[in-house]
From TrEMBL:
Name of the protein this chain belongs to: Ribosomal RNA large subunit methyltransferase H
UniProt-listed HAMAP family: 23SrRNA_methyltr_H (MF_00658)
Signal peptide: none
Reaction(s) catalysed (UniProt annotation): pseudouridine(1915) in 23S rRNA + S-adenosyl-L-methionine = N(3)-methylpseudouridine(1915) in 23S rRNA + S-adenosyl-L-homocysteine + H(+)
InterPro entries assigned to the protein according to its UniProt record, in alphabetical order: Alpha/beta_knot_MTases, RlmH-like, tRNA_m1G_MTases_N
Enzyme Commission number(s): 2.1.1.177
Length: 159
């Protein structure tokens, strides 16, 4: 099993980097894990709809160029399906059982994901209807992937 997490923007906050590195280290005993950061598109604070679309399109092109062609792609999107930790574990287990050895998770930038990425995704996952900073979502996602493996292996993990 190989898991790739593709995110837009470079992670700068040390406390987030530290948490992500810890879960990345823990995950290595269950799966190959690759974290890919693509550059975010620099843009002024106030953008028109057309400008927002252009920014998301440029970020989408960068994301799509990093996606393994045979990967099952799960895009994080606010309108995606919400799952419990156990349901995420079931999803990963089902994918592994039926021959999907490459899974890629995608986290967009501050404007979200372009339609091209959503179309390429096999499913969309939402952690909440609330909005979270995309850098924080990377930590939450990697922790949930680790938790999913612990659930699949019937190993104890704090609740």
């Amino acid at each position: 099993m190989s898991i790739t997490i593709i995110t837009v923007g470079k992670l700068k906050e040390k406390y987030l980097k530290s948490g992500i590195e810890e879960y990345e280290k823990r995950l290595r005993s269950y799966s190959k894990i690759e974290l890919i950061e693509v550059a975010d598109e620099k843009a002024p604070e106030q953008l028109s709809e057309a400008e927002m679309e252009m920014v998301k399109k440029k970020e989408a092109d960068r994301i799509l160029s990093k996606l393994p062609p045979d990967a099952h792609v799960i895009a994080l999107a606010i309108n995606g399906k919400q799952k419990s930790s156990e349901e995420l574990a079931d999803t990963l287990n089902r994918l592994m059982t039926y021959g999907k050895s490459k899974i890629a998770f995608v986290i967009g930038g501050s404007l979200g994901l372009h339609e091209d990425v959503l179309r390429r995704s096999d499913e969309q996952l939402s952690f909440s209807r609330m909005t979270f900073p995309h850098q924080l979502m990377k930590l939450i996602l990697i922790e949930q992937i680790y938790r999913a493996f612990k659930i699949m292996k019937n190993e104890p993990y704090h609740k």
